[in-house]
Amino acid sequence: MAHETAHTQRPDQPDPADAKPDAAVVRDALGVGVAVGLSGFAFGVTSAGAGLTLLQTCLTSLLIFTGASQFALVGALAAGGNPFTAAAGAFFLGVRNAFYGLRLSQLLALRPAVRPAAAQWVIDETTAVALAQPTRRAARIGFTVTGVTLYLLWNLTTLLGALGAEAIGDTEAWGLDAAGPAVFLALLAPMLRSAVERATAVLAVALGLGLLPVLPAGVPVLVAALAAPVVLYVQGRRGSGPGGRPTVEASEEEQR
Predict the structure, then answer these.
(1) Domain count, the chain
(2) Does some domain include residue 6?
């Protein structure tokens, strides 16, 4: 009877053994939202230093709301890149959020009327907090609290950063133009656990930096996206012998 009940239990009904207190979920979500939301100040300063108006800077955070894409956009514009190229680079960086959405739609199972609004908050941080929760209820709380906190704080600090840009002066002299990429790298580094992921990151950096002097601004980041298929291709070749046949080592690994 107990075995049958375990199989018929709805996914949104938490197992008491796995349940996490709502207060603990809220605390964790607030920690992530506040920590990341404060970096919106760096974006506001960088965006204003790149020549965007106060309205353009604030609309970028309000409508795009994905830090890596925002920094890529203003960085390319600051370097004199074509607006379409800059937008393309930001777009490709933001594509990952669509894949997050596919996973979160199953996990959160929100009502259709709520999904368009929730889609605005599908970013790295909200996805990480939601996926870390043991139950659907906790995932919904974590996603919502992280999304609300981060969205409000990011936009507030963006406004403050843009307003304070004139008082600060030259953002390059203060090193604030590097704050955005530094924050992004700090978030990305802990995710590089396997050799394939580290090799992809190293190759992407090499392509991006190496092509900066010879390609228009914004294009190197697009070329750097080729690092992933290149590394996967090389890995596949190493796992195969002549003619694409698996090596003895690969065959033994598969058997284990």
Answers:
(1) 2
(2) no
Nearest by Cα to 100 from 76, 66, 134, 52:
66
pLDDT score recorded for residue 248? 45
Average pLDDT over residues 169-195: 64
Domain region containing 179 = 19-191
Determine if the pTM surpasses 0.85: no
Q: Does the residue 14 lie in any domain?
A: no
The structure tokens listed for 74 are 């203003």
Tell me which long-range contacts 24-29 makes (C-beta under 8 A, separation of at least 24): 25/133, 25/138, 25/141, 25/142, 25/145, 26/141, 26/145, 28/129, 28/132, 28/142, 29/129, 29/141, 29/142, 29/143, 29/144, 29/145, 29/146, 29/149
Residue 9 lies in a domain: no
